Structure to design on (266 residues):
């Protein structure tokens, strides 16, 4: 909910509301690519955009992401989370959304980079799957058929350490080592004990689902599962996205704004 408020606020400010509907219609009309789900592994290379994320126009309901499960935080974390949620809802209602990490030129990290309000690119090479997010040019590497490191043995970072293997047509990915300062999906708080399991698979020739399960014995009462759906967008070329062309900024009071064109540096 909290993340959705911020994204909707950003969409209105940046003109994404109308553009997203047109993009959804364009994506829905793209031709499909045949694939064989019976072979080991699947062709997931390409550029992908969220399917049914901003608009359901032209979207096949059979392939949209299923509803997320309920995030159940332990009491001490739930209290702080609920208080922050109310604070952010009030700020959004005033038209002054509280800034997210991207405004401070920080990457979203895992698993939030997979929410992909901008396109993702997936590259399959021997022994590795690489995922690149257009937003902030984020990169994560999934090393195939290698053992996972022990939690605590990997220097914590934004994306953690990801290893994966194919189970038929499903890429199963295990990620540890995301530092606690990186907020999770929907800004879920987490500890250094967090583990992320993904099941990435084609549910139709050009529709990809990334089912994500987050486990954290410190902050969560039970594992939390949610899914992102994507449509392959074969004719799109990834664009450079760095903070130099970020139109958002935070004023001296901590309020998020968008620079108008005539305010941008030349």
């Amino acid at each position: 909910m909290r993340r959705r408020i911020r994204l909707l606020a950003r969409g209105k400010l940046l003109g994404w509301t109308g553009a997203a509907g047109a993009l959804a219609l364009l994506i829905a009309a793209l031709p499909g690519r045949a694939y064989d789900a019976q072979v080991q592994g699947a062709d997931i290379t390409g550029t992908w955009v969220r399917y049914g994320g901003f608009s359901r126009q032209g979207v096949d309901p059979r392939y949209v992401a299923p509803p997320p499960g309920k995030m159940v935080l332990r009491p001490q974390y739930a209290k702080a989370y609920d208080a922050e949620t109310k604070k952010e809802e009030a700020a959004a209602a005033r038209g002054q959304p509280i800034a997210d990490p991207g405004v401070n030129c920080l990457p979203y990290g895992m698993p939030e980079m997979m929410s992909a309000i901008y396109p993702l690119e997936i590259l399959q090479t021997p022994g590795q799957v690489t995922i690149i997010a257009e937003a902030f040019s984020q990169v994560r590497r999934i090393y195939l058929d290698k053992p996972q490191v022990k939690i605590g043995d990997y220097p914590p970072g934004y994306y953690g350490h990801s290893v994966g293997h194919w189970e038929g047509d499903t890429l199963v990915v295990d990620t540890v080592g995301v530092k606690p300062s990186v907020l999770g999906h929907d800004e879920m708080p987490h500890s250094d004990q967090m583990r992320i399991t993904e099941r990435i698979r084609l549910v139709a020739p050009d529709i990809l689902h990334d089912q994500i399960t987050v486990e954290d014995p410190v902050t969560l009462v039970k594992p939390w599962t949610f899914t992102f759906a994507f449509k392959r967008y074969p004719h799109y070329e990834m664009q450079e996205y760095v903070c130099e062309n970020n139109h958002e900024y935070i004023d001296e009071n901590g309020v998020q704004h968008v620079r108008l064109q005539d305010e941008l540096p030349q």
Observations:
- The longest strand covers residues 195-204.
- Residues 2-259 form one domain.
